[in-house]
């Protein structure tokens, strides 16, 4: 139950990449609230309903146990708040600085459509030629890519 609650608190904290959980209205996403409610109801059902207790081999927890579980699993909220408040520059998707875990991020160049080697139309023709060379056929005239990502279903009936 502690691990599931850690996941629930983490999902609640991750609703925004840069705002802390208390800076966002808890009612801003009703679908998320319904999912959280069903998760909590499911947890209590597995723990407290005798038929589900026998299937999942669980025991009823006391109020003190539940309090301890909520206290332990809610530390995810505190850790996420510390990360967003004090380590935003290192642990953010929008960060321009290097990460403390992996150095600098590689920045991709924007494609402009203008090539160094001739016109865009000539490059398009070259790319099309390369694609045609890599294409394979499945025997039915349908081209397949080299990695087998295109799958054609055959209609096979047996009598």
Short account of what is shown:
The protein has 159 residues and is mainly alpha-helical. It is built from six helices and two strands; from the N terminus they run H-H-H-H-H-H-E-E. The chain has a domain of 85 residues.
How is the secondary structure organized here?
Blueprint: H1 2-13, H2 30-48, H3 50-56, H4 63-73, H5 75-86, H6 120-134, E1 136-137, E2 143-144
Antiparallel strand pairs: 1-2
Keywords:
about 50% helix, 2 strands, mainly alpha, two-stranded antiparallel sheet, about 160 residues, 6 helices
Written account of the structure:
Helix 1 packs across helix 4 (63-73), helix 1 (2-13) packs parallel to helix 5 (75-86) and helix 2 crosses helix 3. The mean pLDDT is 77. A two-stranded antiparallel ribbon has the order 1-2. The chain contains six helices and two strands. The protein is extended and about 60 Å long. The chain is an all-alpha fold and 159 residues long. It has a domain at 2-86.
Approximately how much helix is present in the residues?
40-55%
**Helix run count:** 6
Q: How large is the radius of gyration?
A: 27 Å
| Helix-strand pattern | HHHHHHEE
Q: What's the main sheet like?
A: 2 strands, antiparallel
What strand order characterises the main sheet?
1-2
Count of beta strands: 2
Low-confidence stretches: none
**Residue share in β-strands:** under 5%
CA-based shape: extended
């Amino acid at each position: 139950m502690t691990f599931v609650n850690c996941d629930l608190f983490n999902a609640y904290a991750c609703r925004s990449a840069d705002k802390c959980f208390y800076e966002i209205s808890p009612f801003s996403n009703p679908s998320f609230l319904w999912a959280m409610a069903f998760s909590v109801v499911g947890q209590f059902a597995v723990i407290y309903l005798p038929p589900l207790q026998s299937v999942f081999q669980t025991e009823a927890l006391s109020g003190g146990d539940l309090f301890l579980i909520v206290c332990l699993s809610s530390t995810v909220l505190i850790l996420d708040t510390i990360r967003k408040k004090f380590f935003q520059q290192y642990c953010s998707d929008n960060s321009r600085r290097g990460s403390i875990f992996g150095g600098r991020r590689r920045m991709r160049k924007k494609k402009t459509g203008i090539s160094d080697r001739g016109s865009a139309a000539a490059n398009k023709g070259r790319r099309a030629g390369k694609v045609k060379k890599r294409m394979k056929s499945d025997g039915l005239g349908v081209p397949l890519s080299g990695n087998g990502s295109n799958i054609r279903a055959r209609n096979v009936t047996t009598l």
